[in-house]
Amino acid sequence: MDEQLHIIIAGNKGKVFKLPCSRRKICLIISASVVALLFLTVTSIVSFSLYSKNCTISNQLARLQEKLHTSSEQIARHNTLTEEERLKIDLKVARLELNNMKQATAFKEEKESLLSTAIEELNVRSELIEKIIGSIGIKIPQNDDSDSKHRGGLFIQQPDTETDNLLYKADKYLNTIRSLPLGTPVQGSITSRFGKRRDPMNKKSAFHPGVDIRGKRGEKIYATADGVVIKSFRNSGYGNYVAIDHGNGYTTSYAHMQKYLVQKGHRVERGQPIGLVGNTGRSTGPHLHYEIALDDKPINPYNFMKVANLLEKSSSLPEKK
Predict the structure, then answer these.
(1) CA distances from residue 94 to 73, 101, 140 in whole angstroms, order as listed
(2) 20-57 residue pLDDT tens
(3) What pLDDT is recorded for position 7?
(4) What are the DSSP E strand ranges found in 3-69?
(5) Predicted TM-score (pTM) above 0.90
(6) Cβ(275)–Cβ(253) under 8 Å?
(7) Which site in 31, 83, 104, 120 is 20 to 30 Å from 143, CA atoms measured?
(8) Is residue 196 a contact partner of residue 205, using CB atoms and an 8 Å limit?
(9) Cα(312)–Cα(187) distance, integer angstroms
(10) Is 68 helix (H, G, I), strand (E, B) or coil?
(11) Domain ranges of the chain
(12) Could you tell me if residue 149 is left (phi over 0), alpha (psi between -120 and 50 degrees) or otherwise beta?
């Protein structure tokens, strides 16, 4: 049988309490106490672990909140800086636009000044061209609008301005001058003029269709207008001979040359060398026989040669090559 253990508890007044306990009950109580202690220990450890984790998470959350606050401040500063940069960029753009407007205004004023100067110079040159052309009795060709057939298109009114009229007039003058044999083909004095004269070979009265200009043997002879060479050969009377068609009915002829430098069909420009002064053909010494014809009729070259000084003063004659 189980052994009995008696637990005696004595009170202050002499009372005695006896608690009979078996060994088995004691073992159960001790076991329950150990289990409870273990449970409490495990619970305490788990609670402490959870508390530690909670503290760690709280700290991490606090740090994250601090970082978030810092990031918000940085974003705010960045936005402030971005706004400042945008304002600076807008200010730069505004300054550039203002500078562009100032430059455009300055360019416009400069353009108007240059245009005004150009118009004044063009007006002076046009008056000079009028004087040159008038001095030799040349008329400016007018546009022929008599034939209205085979034409069409929209009607657009032409603005009638002084500048347009001046440019139009100068353009007509230039087109006319390009075909006029102006100036001298070679530097030298005139030894025989246009018209009636005594022939230098037989001393008889004769008609001289051009002018004779004294020159040095081998000196260059220059074309007096743009044109196309229509003759270049050796003639018994004229010697080495060149003829140029300048259009609008004008032709020039050059005779007694030592050598011609162009061939038939060549296109020449005013101031271009076309031959050398010589004494070939029916000639008494080195010189150039120079003729101008209008519609195959000889005209006095002197009227065209005398404008050379005016051309040189206005620099309208191209520089001789």
Answers:
(1) 31, 10, 55
(2) 777 777 788 888 888 888 888 888 888 888 888 888 88
(3) 67
(4) 4-10, 16-22
(5) no
(6) no
(7) 120
(8) yes
(9) 13
(10) helix
(11) 190-314
(12) beta
Q: What type of residue is 145?
A: D
CA dist., res. 287 & res. 219, Å (int): 10
* Share of the chain residues as helix, strand and coil, in percent rounded to the nearest 5: 45, 25, 30
State how far the Cα of 13 lies from the Cα of 35, in Å rounded to an integer.
37
Contacts of 277 (CB under 8 A, 6+ apart): 186, 215, 216, 217, 218, 219, 220, 221, 257, 258, 286, 287, 288
Q: What is the pLDDT of residue 315?
A: 46
Half-sphere exposure of 144 (CA within 13 A, CB side): 3
Residue with tokens 């060709």: 141
Packing angle, helices 162-178 and 23-135, rounded to 10:
60
Please give the Cα distance from 225 to 304 (Å, whole number): 11
What is the CATH architecture assignment of 190-314?
Distorted Sandwich (2.70)
Q: Is 172 exposed, middle or buried (0-12, 13-18, 19+ CB in 10 A)?
A: middle
Distance spanning both ends of the chain, measured CA to CA: 155
The stretches in the chain having pLDDT less than 70 are 1-7, 13-14, 17-19, 115, 118-119, 122, 124-126, 128-129, 131-176, 308-321
pLDDT value of position 316 = 43
Do 222 and 271 form a contact (C-beta atoms < 8 A)? yes
Each residue's pLDDT tens digit, 247-264? 888 999 999 999 999 999
pLDDT at 172: 66
b/e string for 83-104 if b means 16 or more Cβ within 10 A? eeeeeeeeeeeeeeeeeeeeee
Among 259, 274, 253, 258, smallest CA distance to 210 is for 253
